[in-house]
């Protein structure tokens, strides 16, 4: 088993880049069908979504716009439970079809907060594409979660944009923490 160390923690290979890309291609096909005749605005949640956004957007062939925003709510391997302010939200959201692009939905607190804030700006629609979802950690019913890459167990993962203590975002594949 291919193992690596990120900061003080050991990780093992979980989802290889090839696998990620195959799945992202399918998500793109689905989005292209669903948004035919529309011009969605993709809003990536920084920092974690930057690689997923880059690969997803390459699969989109309807006219579209891309923006990024950020919200910090997570430190180490357990959620702080606090969601901070949204920074850099685009101001042309009214009447737009929004697709929020996330790296991972864990408890759902962050995405729930983002959706609520976006809806106050009267978009035509809001949907979420998250590369990863941990269904057993979800504490909120996120009905906007339309395009999910992979459902994963409640384990800490790193790589392909996702970090552990700020490190590991550059890894091509996704790794999961080994026990202990
Ligand atoms: P939630 O608010 O509990 O859904 O947490 C969402 C955020 O926590 C994500 O956008 C990530 O930044 C971070 N996060 C949750 N689980 C992981 C993980 O396994 N690895 C890295 N970051 C994670």
Describe the protein.
With 180 residues, this protein is an alpha/beta fold. The protein has a single domain (20-151), classed as Rossmann fold (3-Layer(aba) Sandwich), CATH 3.40.50. The protein is 21% helix and 32% strand. It contains 3 helices and 11 strands, in the order E-E-H-E-H-E-E-E-E-H-E-E-E-E. It has helices spanning 17-34, 50-57, 109-119; strands at 3-6, 9-15, 41-46, 65-70, 74-75, 78-79, 97-105, 125-133, 145-151, 157-158, 174-177. The strands form 3 sheets. Strands 4-3-7-8-9 form a 5-stranded parallel sheet, with helices on both faces. Strands 1-2-11-10 form a 4-stranded antiparallel sheet. It has a two-stranded antiparallel sheet with strand order 5-6. Helix 3 links the parallel strand 7 (97-105) and strand 8 (125-133). Helix 1 (17-34) packs across helix 2. The chain is globular and about 50 Å long. It starts with a strand and ends with a strand. The structure holds inosinic acid (IMP). Inosinic acid is lined by residues 48, 73-74, 79, 102-111, 156-158, 162. Inosinic acid (IMP) binds next to strand 7, helix 3 and strand 10.
């Amino acid at each position: 088993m291919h193992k690596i160390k990120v900061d003080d923690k050991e990780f093992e290979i979980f989802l290889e880049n090839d696998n990620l890309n195959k799945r992202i291609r399918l998500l793109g096909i689905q989005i292209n069908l669903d948004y035919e005749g529309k011009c969605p605005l993709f809003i990536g949640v920084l920092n974690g979504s930057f690689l997923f956004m880059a690969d997803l957007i390459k699969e989109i062939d309807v006219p579209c716009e891309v923006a990024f925003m950020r919200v910090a709510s997570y430190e180490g391997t357990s959620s702080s439970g606090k969601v901070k302010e949204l920074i850099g939200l685009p101001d042309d959201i009214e009447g737009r079809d929004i697709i929020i692009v996330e790296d991972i939905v864990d408890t759902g607190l962050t995405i729930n907060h983002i959706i609520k804030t976006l809806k106050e700006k009267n978009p035509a629609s809001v949907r979420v594409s998250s590369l990863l979802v941990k269904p057993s950690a979800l504490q909120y019913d996120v009905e906007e979660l339309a395009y999910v890459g992979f459902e994963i167990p409640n384990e800490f993962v790193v790589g392909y944009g996702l970090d552990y203590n700020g490190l590991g975002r550059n890894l091509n594949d996704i790794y999961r923490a080994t026990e202990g």
